[in-house]
Amino acid sequence: MQTESTILSSFWWVLDTLTDKEKNVMERRVGLNWSRETLQSIWNSFSPSITRERVRQIEASWINKIWRIIKWTKLIEIQELSRNIIKVHWWILSSKKLVNVLISELNLSKEFNTGVLEIIVQSDFDIQKSKPKLWVETYFYLPSISKKSIDAVYKEWLKILKKRKDVMDKNSLYELIKVNLSSIFPNLTTVFIDSVLDLYEDIVKWEETLIWLTKWKILNPKTLKDKAVYVMKKVKVPMHFVDISNEITKQLWDTVKVNTIHNELIRNVDFVLVWRGIYALKEWGFKPGTVLDVIMDILAKSGEPMTTDTIVAKVLKTRNVKNTTIYMNLQNKKYIERVWRNYYKLKD
Q1: What's the rounded Cα separation, in Å, for the pair 7 and 331?
Q2: Which of 74, 96, 212, 322 is 20 to 30 A from residue 339's alpha carbon, by CA?
Q3: Shortest CA distance to 97 belongs to which of 203, 206, 199, 233?
């Protein structure tokens, strides 16, 4: 498997074959400097200015050059892997999801510049990249895919949801789409439909089981408690009360005062304070009480001495605290006894 350093060294070697103008356009289009730019932004920045079509020509030029050179480098393995990943998703996949899968498969760090991978994939002539379109994510697809089937799946989804005027179970929706389009596209698969619906920003997938239109507020909770539960279930990790307030505003378009949400979290038994200002849902297995209470509960259930590392690991599953806080509480001789080195039990 290629390392990050080998990928980057090969990549920069390939880029050295481009002209300064080609490299400039490429870096800005895919965000090699961590900032993506539109065609308009790029053509306006040149002096004298160039046309939008000229920017496209420059982009096509560097893609063609890179394609010819990559064939003689190890980077071709990434292109081959990309094609296989897209095939698994039935010949279409959003660029964001493809890059994330590549990072995982290649064991790259999360800080790796995704623009590098996009350039490698985009320069493969066996993989097509969609043109920018409002409210649709950029995606990669194989030439064997029918663009008509992509549009048909989206339009059928829209027709079904608008007629139903309510959220719908994902699996039921996918089966209905397949039935309704069977006469035109008899070979539609669940994987393909799911990949297509991932592309559209007016589609919401709730917990990967329900689907509805972004503009709908059908599932938007009405009470403050339900709003907090809603955003916490989407984030899926304990949150500070300030972040919960911000997320309610962001996701539900409802401005909530920080103090108001904090009071709701304090008084409601469905939320558990797990650290300073940080709350979790009780249904996640978190229990109220101090870190000492949690340690004592762990030791009581064990019924035998436990190592420090085991205790720390179990506490961290239900409390977002520093290790030092756990160590300090283990020194509470009133309730906890050290039986030998790094082993603790409840005091008799």
Answers
A1: 49
A2: 322
A3: 199
- Cα–Cα distance between 99 and 118 in angstroms, integer? 7
* Buried-exposed string 173-187: b where 16+ CB fall within 10 A, e elsewhere: bbeebbebbeeebee
- Please return the burial class of 60, using the count of CB atoms within 10 Å of its CB with bins 0-12, 13-18 and 19+: exposed
Q: How many CA atoms are closer than 13 Å to the CA of 146, on its beta-carbon side?
A: 11
Summarize pLDDT for 145-188 with one digit per residue, the tens.
Answer: 888 999 999 999 999 988 887 778 888 999 999 999 999 999 99
What pTM does this model have? 0.59
CB 60 within 8 A of CB 68: no
Q: Provide the 3-class DSSP secondary structure of residue 271.
A: strand
Structure-block tokens of residue 23: 């490299």
For residue 207, what pLDDT is reported?
59
Longest dimension (CA), the chain: 84
